[in-house]
Write a sequence for this structure.
């Protein structure tokens, strides 16, 4: 095999639907037994975005990708790979990545989707980084896009208040500089608890009437309290491991931590247990809720554009979600 390459982060972009849904809408318009105060204090969410008619994972993903290419100063025809992480594809086939590829006007390069729920972006980042590191792709587009609000049961106050829609994207480019860009990605999964977070598929079998089996679950289902415990435990492990990995790589401490935007209390509990400084943590869940595979790349894009992360910073991404899956990445900007 030829020599391995560095994987530079050359561009980021994000795209959010225009429609803002504030917490009060759940009580005022949907007559749900909840309150702005409960949602804010138990989750940290104040508002989220809902995809409008015609907006899908592919349309939001294409816009985020366009912005990422613009910031990378690359043309869609420069791309050698398109990977889209989503649990809400426009269609089962073709892949959302194919729709994004066509929307951008890419060449006939490989394009495929990947499903790892809220860890999806980090899973896709790992795939893209390996294409680039080995020289199989010079420039790779990695998108996280989800419209989970299309799967919500608006009578279930435990779940429908948590999610929003959006997309984020990054461009990875080969570089001879080995100690820059994506330094490491760690991925984990445990398939023994599929019951904790489920999003139904169009092909989920519907049991025959009278069979005694559970009817098809049409909506996203969560066991919130158990997911909460899982998320805190895994986030503590991921941060501890990232700190140890940074030391081993000779990097200083973590400059910026970008966690999956799920619940402020999950983030607070994990960083408090690790003694990690809250001022180094990027949070935007108050504005967007949980956007699933889009959550980490949207926060990364905003952190870069606002100057919150600067060239040379060590940035750690952590995510966890359905599968169960959990994951982390270390970036040197
Ligand atoms: C869902 C979540 C916000 C609930 O917060 P919590 O503090 O764990 O709350 P609990 O589940 O213990 O419920 C406490 C009470 O609040 C009620 N409650 C739940 N949602 C509510 C809402 N939107 N408004 C008002 N009350 C609500 C519950 O019914 C429960 O009432 P009870 O004690 O009478 O049964 C929290 O567990 C969470 O964020 N979990 C992870 C979410 C997730 O799975 N995300 C996707 C995966 S990445």
């Amino acid at each position: 095999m030829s020599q391995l390459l560095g994987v530079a982060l050359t561009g980021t972009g994000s795209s959010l639907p225009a429609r803002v849904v504030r917490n009060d809408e759940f009580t005022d318009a949907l007559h749900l037994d909840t309150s702005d105060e409960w949602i804010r204090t138990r989750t940290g969410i104040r508002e989220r975005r809902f995809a409008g008619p015609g907006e899908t994972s592919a349309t939001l993903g294409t816009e985020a990708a366009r912005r990422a290419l613009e910031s990378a100063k690359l043309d869609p025809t420069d791309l050698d790979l398109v990977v889209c992480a989503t649990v809400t594809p426009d269609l089962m086939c073709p892949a959302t990545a194919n729709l994004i590829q066509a929307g951008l006007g890419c060449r006939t390069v490989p394009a495929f989707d990947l499903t790892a729920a809220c860890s999806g972006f980090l899973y896709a980042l790992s795939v893209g980084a390996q294409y680039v590191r080995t020289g199989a792709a010079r420039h790779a587009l990695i998108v996280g896009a989800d419209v989970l609000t299309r799967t919500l049961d608006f009578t279930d106050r435990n779940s429908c208040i948590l999610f929003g829609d959006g997309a984020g994207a990054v461009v990875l480019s080969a570089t001879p500089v080995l100690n820059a860009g994506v330094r490491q990605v760690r991925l984990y999964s445990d398939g023994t608890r599929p019951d904790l977070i489920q999003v139904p598929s169009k092909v989920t079998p519907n049991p025959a009437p009278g069979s005694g089996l559970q009817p098809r679950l049409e909506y996203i289902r969560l066991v919130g309290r158990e997911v909460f415990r899982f998320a805190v435990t895994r986030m503590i492990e991921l941060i501890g491991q990232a700190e140890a990995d940074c030391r081993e790589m000779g990097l200083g401490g973590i400059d910026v931590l970008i966690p999956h935007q799920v619940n402020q209390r999950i983030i607070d509990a994990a960083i408090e247990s690790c003694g990690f400084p809250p001022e180094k943590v990027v949070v935007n869940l108050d504005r967007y809720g949980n956007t699933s595979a889009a959550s980490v790349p949207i926060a990364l894009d905003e952190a870069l554009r606002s100057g919150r992360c600067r060239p040379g910073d060590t940035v750690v991404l952590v995510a966890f979600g359905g599968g169960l899956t959990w994951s982390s990445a270390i970036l040197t900007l």
Observations:
- The pocket of coenzyme A is lined by residues 34, 38-39, 42-43, 118, 157-158, 161-162, 197, 222, 224-225, 227-228, 262-263, 290, 321 (CB under 6 Å).
